[in-house]
Amino acid sequence: MIRSNENFSKMSDSYLFATIAAKVAAHKQAHPQEQVISLGIGDVTRPIVPAVVQAMHAAVADMGQAASFHGYGPEQGYAFLREAIAKHDFHARGIAIDADDIFISDGSKCDVGNIQELFAHDCKIAVTDPVYPVYVDSNAMAGRAGNWTGTHWDNLIYLPCTEENDFVPDFPKEQPDIIYLCYPNNPTGTVLHREALQAWVDYARNHKALIIYDAAYEAFISEPDVPHSIFEIDGAAEVAIECRSFSKTAGFTGVRCAYMVIPRTVQVSAPQGKMVRLRDLWHRRQSTKFNGCSYIVQRGAEAVFTPQGQQQVRAVIQEYMDNAASICTGLRALGLRCFGGVNAPYIWTKTPQGMASWEFFESLLKQASLVCTPGAGFGFSGEGYVRFTAFGTAEQSAQALQRIAHLSL
Ligand SMILES: *Cc1c(COP(=O)(O)O)cnc(C)c1O
After folding, report:
1. Is there a domain that residue 80 lies in?
2. DSSP H/E element including 295
3. Same domain, 294 and 330
C-alpha cells in the first residue's frame, strides 16, 4: 500500500471558496429566477487591456517564424521583463533592486507555496489573522502547522488583526522564523503605514526572522504614506523577500504571471555554520523544477510597463477603486462599520448586531441573492466580519447596495 502524506488528512475537505460556491449553486437552483450578484471571490472582471493584448498577439506571431521562435526560456524569466520590472517597480521609487534578484513565475500562489521548500522543516511560522488561506494551508501540507484544533493550527503563531488594534499586528510572544505579511491586505483591505512596516523590519532584524511580503495589491495604493514595496524600508533587503503579481494589477488572473524579489543580501544558515544566499537556493530550485513562464505571457507583462499599458491598467484600477469608494459610502450610510477600500479592492465589514459571519453571509444570500465572503473563513479573528470585493462592475456594486438597503437587519 502506498501511504499518503499524512498532513493532507489534517486538512479540512474543501477550500473556503469551494464551500461558498456550493452554497451559491444551491441557492441558484432553488431560486432560478433570481439574479445573483457576487462580491465574493477576489477575481478581476475587466478584460486584458489593449496594449497587453497587442503585445501578446505580436509574441504569438514571433513564435510562428523560425527567426523569432522561442523554445525553452531562461528559468528565471526573460531579461527584458526582469529589467522592465527593476526599472519601473523599483528604480523609479528609488529602490536598488538588481534584475538578477527578480524571478518570474506563473503566479504568486505557487511562489508562496514553493518557497517553503527552502526552509527547515521545524521553522516556526507566523501569520496575520485573518489571513490569505494559502499561507496557512500550504504550511499545513508541509507539516509545519501542527494539528487543527477545530479553530486554529496548534503550531502556528497567529497575529490577530482586528478593529481593536487598528488592524496592525502586534509582535508575538513566541519567536517566529518566518513571518507572512500581506499589505495592502487581503482580506481586510487595510495597510501598514511606513512606520509600522519599519517596526516589523526592525523586529525581523532583531529576531533573525524572515518576512515574506506579499504585495499583490500594491497598484491599488492611493495614500502617500503607504509603502508600495517592503524594500522602501531601511534594512528590509537583509530580512525580506517580496511577492508581486500581475493578476490584480493587470487582470492576469487567467493569463498567469508573477514575480518574486529575493535580494542577494538575504542569507540563511546552512550545515557547518555556513551562510548561504536564499536567492541562490531559489535559483537552484527553480532551475530544477520550473521551466519558466511562457514567452507570450512575458511579452504581455512587459507591455504593462509601456506608457499606454500604464495608462490603461491605471484606468481599470480606478474603476475598481471607484466601486470600492461607493461600496464603503453605501455601507456606512446603512450604519455598517467598514474598513479598507481605500488602498485595496476589499471592504472588510463588521456584521450588524454581532451576527456571526456565516450567518450574515447566509442572510445576504437568501434575502438579497448577494454573495460576500464570511470573515471567519479567513481565520478566527475574521469572525464577525464579511469581505466585499470591488471587482464587480459599477452597476453590480450599486445594485448590491440597494439590495442590502432593503434588508431588514
Ligand atoms: C490574488 C492574490 C495573489 C495573486 O496570486 P496569483 O497566483 O499570482 O494569481 C497573491 N496574494 C494574494 C494575497 C492575493 O489575494
Report:
1. yes
2. helix 295-303
3. no
Whether 337 is covered by a domain: the verdict is yes
DSSP structure class, residue 226: S
In terms of residue numbers, what domain contains 11?
6-47+308-405
Per-residue b or e along 67-95, where b marks 16 or more CB atoms closer than 10 Å to that residue's CB: eeeeeebebbbbeebbbbbbeebbeeeeb
Phi and psi, residue 214, nearest 5°: -100, 110
- Read off the CATH number of the domain in which 86 is found: 3.40.640.10
pLDDT in tens, 146-172: 999 988 999 999 999 999 999 999 999
Residues in the ligand 1 pocket, defined by CB under 6 Å: 42, 107-109, 132, 182, 186, 214, 216, 245, 247-248, 253, 258
**For the chain, percent of residues with pLDDT exceeding 90:** 95
288-310 per-position pLDDT tens digit: 999 999 999 999 999 999 999 99
Residue 257 alpha carbon, nearest atom of ligand 1: 8
| Position in ligand 1 atom list of the atom nearest CA 246 | 8
Going by alpha carbons, the residue nearest to atom 2 of ligand 1 is 216
- State which of 305, 329, 354 marks the end of a domain: 305
Look at residues 143, 76, 130, 126 and name the one whose alpha carbon lies nearest to residue 282.
76
Q: Hey, which of 111, 214, 246 would you mutate to test ligand 1's pocket, going by the most ligand atoms within 8 Å of its Cβ?
A: 214
Please check whether residue 1 lies inside any domain of the structure.
no
Nearest CA to ligand 1 atom 15: 186
> Nearest-CA neighbor of 329 among 409, 400, 270?
400
Q: Determine the distance separating the centroid of ligand 1 and the alpha carbon of 109, expressed in angstroms.
A: 6
- Closest-CA residue, ligand 1 atom 14, reads 216
Cα 132 to ligand 1 centre (Å): 9
Q: Has residue 91 been placed in a domain?
A: yes
pLDDT tens, 378-394?
999 999 999 999 999 99
